[in-house]
Write a structure and sequence with these properties.
419 residues; alpha+beta; Protein Transport Mog1p, Chain A; 14-stranded antiparallel sheet; 23 strands; disordered N terminus
Length: 419
């Protein structure tokens, strides 16, 4: 069988190799600022109060609300809006709304790369050095966001200019919101402006959504991405699951690797899979794309990986556990007397061309986990509640471990059934 290197393995191996590029730091800084000049450290700590706000409204997208600062629409095109927000500092906050995008990780990297040349032009000095300065994952008003800051130097020694391009990015509904601030310091101020922009641009919750959650993914205490799930009922009474995974990691002191994956599943309310579609964009290029569905009596996988067509008829033709079903299976295990349960599951990171034996097992005497999940080569231990949801997970593959912790949860996977 052909070996398929997983994104998880690729990312974590790169991190292991490049841990030297991540200096002693706080929770989100990737560099040690104590060695920087006093003026820089002092500037980094400065903040300001924002006394003004603007009533923001986007009639095309149908949302709006109060945004901190003085907001102006500066440009628009099909599926794109550009705003500036004056916060009474030397540089305005710039905010973008994208209706079409690959994902938060790829989008923010692309915008940073396209913004640095304009900063060169503004100062009339060439970019001589750039470094990944800060990376973090957080949540605001039940919206997960990515923080990614870039330290740059323009010009030759003796006439050099240094600065920090700060970015915050979040997906709300089907739109991507991204704000930038090209100024050292004002980190909390910038975040407050961004949070007000997110709150104003957050769409109303779909009444069919009954369960939503998001998890921060970390390696060795370094936040490197998040996973978000939205579960709703469709018009046929089936469960529609959308899963968004975004990951960023420093492949060197100056470079950042990025990946965005989208998974869409339809499942019956008993947790059995009906069909699914998945695609992943890594470093700006399509990494893989799969669809899994039943044709006749067989499960068929179709798609491509790294530019090559792939396809298979699964040897297994029975019941497959969906993402939604994994919560039901966990709840059934914890609420029952059995200590172990077995299923079959399709998971691209385990093997995209096969159904994988899946085992759930109760754990005892472990304060950090009460359930162990094994899907082919992938092992996960997590602390679950009786409704099947979990607060933390330790996810291991090929000797490498990724930690997941809850950012937020709305609702639960328990559906009321009519007698």
């Amino acid at each position: 069988m052909k070996n398929y290197p997983t994104l998880f393995t690729t990312i974590v191996i790169a991190l292991c190799v490049n841990l030297s590029v991540i200096e002693k730091s706080d929770a989100k800084n990737l560099v040690d600022v104590s060695a920087f000049p006093d003026w820089f450290v002092d500037s980094l700590a400065r903040e300001t109060a924002i006394d003004t706000s603007t009533e923001f409204k986007n009639t095309d997208l149908g949302f709006g609300g109060a945004v901190k600062g003085s907001l102006l629409l500066k440009g628009r095109s099909e599926g794109y809006w550009y705003y500036t927000i004056d916060i009474a500092t030397n540089a305005p906050v710039e905010c973008h709304i994208f209706a079409s995008f690959d994902g938060p990780a790829n989008a923010v990297s692309n915008v940073v790369d396209s913004t640095l040349p304009s900063i060169e032009k503004a100062y009339d000095k060439p970019l001589t050095k750039r470094r990944n300065f800060a990376l973090d994952i957080g949540v605001s008003d039940e919206v997960a966001y990515v923080l990614f800051d870039t330290l740059y130097t323009l010009g030759k020694p003796g006439e050099a200019v240094s600065g920090i391009l700060k970015t915050l990015t979040a997906q709300t509904g089907d739109n991507l919101l991204m704000c930038l601030h090209n100024e050292v310091g004002y980190r909390a101020t910038f975040k407050a402006v961004f949070e007000s922009f997110v709150a104003a641009a957050k769409p109303k919750q779909d009444s069919n959504v009954f369960f939503e959650n998001a998890f921060k993914m970390s390696f060795n205490g370094i936040a490197m991405g998040y996973s978000r799930e939205v579960h709703s009922l469709d018009q046929d009474g089936d469960v529609h699951t959308r899963q968004y995974n975004t990951m960023l990691f420093p492949s060197s002191s100056a470079a950042i690797s990025k990946s965005d994956t989208f998974v869409e599943q339809f499942a019956r309310i008993d947790g059995s899979l009906i069909n699914l579609y998945e695609y992943s964009v890594e470093d700006g290029s399509l990494s893989h794309e799969y669809s899994v569905s039943v044709k006749g009596n067989d499960w068929h996988v179709e798609g491509e990986r790294q530019g090559e067509a792939v396809g298979a008829v699964l040897e297994y033709d029975g019941w497959l556990l969906s993402t939604f079903g994994s919560y039901l299976a966990t709840a059934e295990l914890l609420n029952g007397e059995e200590k172990r349960a077995e299923y079959q599951m399709w998971l691209s990171s385990a093997n995209p061309l096969a159904a994988m034996p899946t085992t759930l097992q109760k754990l005892e005497g472990n304060k950090n986990a009460n359930v162990e999940l094994q899907v082919g080569p992938i092992n996960a231990k997590y602390l679950a509640k009786l409704d099947g949801t979990f607060s933390s997970m330790s996810f291991a593959q090929e000797g490498i471990t990724l930690e997941m912790t809850t950012l937020y949860q709305v609702g639960n996977p328990v559906l009321e059934t009519k007698d």
